[in-house]
Hints:
Blueprint: H1 2-46, H2 50-55, H3 61-74, H4 76-79, H5 95-98, E1 114-116, E2 121-123, H6 125-134, H7 147-159, H8 186-196, H9 198-201, H10 229-239, H11 250-260, H12 273-288
Antiparallel strand pairs: 1-2
Helix pairs in contact: 3-7, 6-7, 8-11, 10-11
The structure holds heme C (2 copies).
One heme C is lined by residues 73, 76, 88, 90, 92-94, 104, 106, 108, 125, 128-129, 132-133, 136-137, 152, 156, 172-173, 220, 224-226, 231.
Amino acid sequence: MLQRDLSRAGAEKRTARRRALRRMTQMLSILFTASALIGWSLPALARPTIEELKARAVLDDYEANIVFGYNIVMQTNKYAGRYAGSSLSCTSCHLRGGTQPEGFPLNVAGVYPKWRAKNGVRNGIGMRIRDCFLYSLNGIMPPEESPEVLAVAAYVSYLSEGEVIGRPPKGWGVPTLPDTGADPNPPRGQAIYQRECVVCHGAKGEGQGPIPAVWGLNSYNAGAGLNNVQKLAGFIWANMPMGNERSLTHQEALDVAAFINLQYRAFDPREGRLKKLAERIYHRLTTIFGQANP
Ligand code: HEC
Ligand code: HEC
């Protein structure tokens, strides 16, 4: 009798303990979810969308610069035409206005200034922006304090809100493809280009409408970051063909990148001013005489 009572009391105690434990885990999970929700919505609260900014009647100077910077990134020829040299916009490579992880996102304010092998000095964010005008856009390097550079820098700061200073953002740059064990093969790349890319980027790599040129004088020049097969392959693998991303194998991405970077494109401006001038004149003439994108 006593034995049974004791064991029943023990069982009740155990169920009570189990119930308390369950309640505690429930409480904890509610707390966890709530804090996660607050954590996620805080940056969202702090950062109005570009559309919200555009709809405001009055913008302070910083906000006005963000909107101008966004416009430059989305339509470079329209908003920074005096420094643009090709048909490309920043968003042609910094996808979705620089918001696409692994598509050269621009939420990078926290990692600058940074030492860079390309010019052997520490680059601030302004220098990085100016470099892309000169090489990736095959244009003219804007002055450090030009309204265009300052506006893009403001937009980069805006995109970087919530990132950890000093640490690269998630999805920085593009993926580095693993070694496939085989060299990139341009003839095979040409066949892939015909099959997967030609519908949008054209038989001469010339692009069409909002679709940018991948070679020729309207594309990036030979000094640009993308004129590197590894980097281009990482970009292509993660982001192209648009709408069917990540459908190529790593080897196919390398092959098509090698093919694209063997095609004609504008000189590296570091090779000389005279060469560059001759090229500009040639480009003007071919545009005037209706043979653009040779
Ligand atoms: C043809 C493609 C292309 C275009 C167009 C282009 N960029 Fe870039 N940009 C790159 C590449 C490639 C890098 C180097 C990323 C790396 O080193 O991994 C880069 C790097 C940058 C960086 C530093 C980002 C980082 O990850 O550290 C900034 C800022 C930048 N570009 C701004 C611009 C702006 C502003 C424009 C338009 C005026 C522009 N870019 C146009 C390809 C391009
Ligand atoms: C459905 C159309 C489409 C297809 C197919 C496509 N692209 Fe693109 N590609 C785009 C668009 C659009 C952009 C510019 C991004 C933007 O404006 O949002 C772009 C950008 C690029 C860029 C960077 C900008 C430049 O002009 O250099 C490269 C390189 C590129 N594509 C390579 C490829 C390759 C290689 C393939 C085939 C494997 C491919 N694309 C297939 C639409 C396409």
